[in-house]
Every structure is written in C-alpha cells, then in structure tokens.
Amino acid sequence: MHQFLEAAIIGVGLGAQYALLALGFTLIFGILGVVNFAHGGFYMLGGYVAYTCVAGLGLAYPLAVVVAMLATAALGWLFELLLIEPLIDDHLATLMLSLGLYLIISTVVLAIFGPISMEFAFPVTGSFHAGSVYLPRENLIVLAVCLVAIACLWLVLFRTDLGRALRALADDRAVGMAQGLRPRLLFPLAFALATGLAGLTGALVTPILSLAPGVGEPVLATSFLTVILGGLGSLGGAALAAFIVGLVEAYTSVYFGGSIGALVLFVMVLLLLVFRPTGLLGRDVRGA
Description:
The protein is built from eleven helices and two strands.
C-alpha cells in the first residue's frame, strides 16, 4: 500500500511539472497560433541559467530560480517581438523559426558548457516520511512551487485585465482587435509568460534529474503529447492531461519499469486521436 501512495504523490509531482510546461505550450498555441518547438530549449536554458548563477555567481538557489525564470521570459519576449510577430500568420515559418531557435540554444549551450552533465544538486536533501511512506524532500518542494506557479497563472489569466485580453484574442483575434486590443503588445507578453514557465520548470527540475545538452528534447516531446491529449488550445485540458501523464508515468515506472511509461502514453494519445480527435477538453475549432 505504501508503494501505491508513494507512486501517487510522485505522479502528482510529475503532473505539476508537466502542467507548467504544457500550459506554456498551450498558451502560445492558443493565443498566437504558434507551435513552439523551442519550448524544450527554454526549459534547458532555465536549468543552465540557474546553474551559472549558483556555481558561477554564488547566488542562492531560490534567487537563481527567479533569475532563470526572468531570463527565459525576456528571451521569449524578444524572440516573439523581433522574429515571430512579423510572420505571425505564417504558421510554417513560425514553426521553423522556433525550431531554429531551439537548435541555436542547444548549440550555444554545447559550445559553452560542453557535452557532459553539470554537477548541479538541489540544495535540500533527505526524505520526509509518514509511517511507511518515504518521499524525497526536494520533490515535495518542487511540487509546492509548481502548484503555486499554476495558481498564479490561473489568477493572471482569469482574474486580471491582462488575462481577459489574452483570452479574448485567443477566442477571436479580429473581434478583440476591433475592441481595441493590441496583439503587438499582448502577444510578446503571452510568449514571455509561457517561456518563463518553461525556464522556471527547468531551474527546479534539472538539479533533481540531470542538466546536460539535449535535456530539452524529451521535455518537448512530453509537452507536445500532453497538449494533444488535453486538446490543443485548452488550458484546462493541458492541466488535466499533465496530471494524467504524471500518474501514468509514476505507476508504470513503479510496477512495470520506466520504459513502459512512454509506450503507455503513446498508446493513450493514439487511442484518443482515433476516438476523440479534439482531445479531452479540446474544441472543434480554435477561434484565434
């Protein structure tokens, strides 16, 4: 029984991490109509920025996480404003631009830090135990931070004028512009918000897992599959699918081995595409 409970809590933790990534991916697609293939690169960059702040500048880890989030958000804002915005309606061009940015980030990281994994450890170690259930403290801290970040994102999107404006553009860009909304101002902010979430996740998770060139590729794949499972453009669907994916990965890893989790995820997505192509909470037509 204790193994079942441990897997459940680990799955929720993984789901919270995947939710931050999938929500950012969905935010960009839902509002801008852009498939951001650089999302995994921002995750990786967040980890390397946090590592540089801790190992190179001597900053405290919590401050390094904040710097990583702000740095990736700033890069996302500039990327959207200077490169994506002029081609916002050319979906193939924006897809290729985001893929090119990911390759640039990967190449720069490889040139500066080399191909080996960095020695980047989470500052808190040890386990929390309640009865026979043992859970790593770092995983619980990351879970708490991710849940707070998800709650903050929800507040921004559903309780602020900025969030209402972004959702209006996602529902119908032409009507939103007729009401005075300015996509050239709001689109870079949405992109920065999404890439900041990816950078935050990278800064939190890479000290626990690993930090090396290429860590963004499986993140991109998982984010993409999670978004498809939840429904492209659906924030609620992305969050729901993220926790489903986290629980599936945790339970399959505990009871069947780590390699089975990816297979189960692919089968889930395949079956969903056959019987419900719009995803769990997706819509037939995306208004943006």
